[in-house]
Design goal:
Number of domains: 1
Mean pLDDT: 92
CATH superfamily: Dihydropteroate synthase-like
Strand content: 5-15%
Number of helices: 9
Strand order of the largest sheet: 8-7-6-5-4-3-10-9
Largest sheet: 8 strands, parallel
Structural class: alpha/beta
Distance between the termini: 18 Å
CATH class: Alpha Beta
Radius of gyration: 17 Å
Helix content: 25-40%
């Protein structure tokens, strides 16, 4: 089993004079307001259901809400801008009426990111690492909050079409270095950047496992690391039981445990209550 890795210990500035305090594993709760996400598509299609789920995840102890209106499952098609706005903005506005929890907007569209920030979002979570929309870098540069950059081969529609790496860790490290240089050149302070290696986004089973096991290899980049392995298909590949995504909790928690050991600063999950409980038990054992 891996030893405990060094974790980023800093405060990241959020809009409206708030901070995201790192130093312990933060739990990011996934709130997909989509009809077709791989795990929970269609369950939160109405604003009322999405807000009720957000309230539940906050009560369960999540540190960040990640709200997304476009599925990025393998083979998925892009969603029009207006449709994505309809799905997300009302939910952000409603959550802001009862909670100041940090909210990230999971989008590749500059227009969605801009309006989400205006509605109360604090973090831009872009699975394209600012590559799909040329205006996203301008929006990211103008607001005072964290930006999550994720690695992905191709697009969600094509990313699982025979992905291949000669050196998975090295190639993704070089991608992150290039993206950090891009941010600096376009007015984004890299102290605001969080890196996500993109489990399941253009990755083979062996790539996903290597990324979780060797996550600390990215620590040389000096930025917080996000790990999102929750309910993903590699778990079913290992278990060999073909269970639906919402029944992959055991595998998800195993990935959470290992990612914590290898330096994850933020854990992106669907099952907030179970993850929070697991982290509490892990920390109690460490401190015994």
């Amino acid at each position: 089993m891996a030893g405990a890795a060094t974790r980023i210990n800093e405060k990241m500035t959020l809009p409206r004079g708030r901070f995201l305090e790192l130093g312990r594993p933060l739990v990011m709760g996934v709130l997909n307001v989509t009809p077709d996400s791989f795990s929970d598509g269609g369950k939160l299609e109405t604003t009322e259901r999405a807000v009720a789920k957000a309230d539940s995840m906050i009560a369960d102890g999540c540190d960040i809400l990640d709200i997304g209106g476009e599925s990025s499952r393998p083979g998925s098609e892009p969603v029009p801008l207006e449709e994505e706005l309809i799905r997300t903005i009302k939910v952000i506005e409603a959550v802001r009426k009862f909670s100041d929890i940090p909210i990230s907007i999971d989008t590749t569209k500059a227009g969605v990111a801009y309006q989400a920030i205006e509605a109360g979002a604090d973090i831009i979570n872009d699975i394209s690492a600012l590559r799909f929309d040329e205006n996203m870098v301008t929006v990211a540069a103008k607001f005072n909050g964290p930006v999550i950059l994720m690695h992905m081969l191709g697009t969600p529609k094509t990313m699982q079409d025979k992905p291949h790496y000669d050196d998975c860790i090295g190639e993704i490290s070089r991608f992150f270095s290039e993206r950090l240089e891009f941010c600096s050149a376009h007015g984004i302070d890299t102290a605001r950047v969080i890196l996500d290696p993109g489990i399941g986004f253009g990755k083979r089973l062996e790539d996903n496992l290597e990324l979780i096991k060797k996550l600390d290899r990215f620590s040389e980049l000096g930025r917080p690391l996000l790990m999102g392995a929750s309910r993903k298909s590699f778990i079913a590949m290992i278990a060999g039981n073909g269970v639906s995504a919402d029944k992959r909790i055991g595998g998800s928690l195993a990935a959470v445990f290992y990612a914590m050991q290898t330096g994850a600063d933020i854990i992106r999950v669907h099952d907030v209550a179970e993850t929070v409980e697991a982290i509490k038990v892990m920390k109690a054992i460490e401190q015994a």
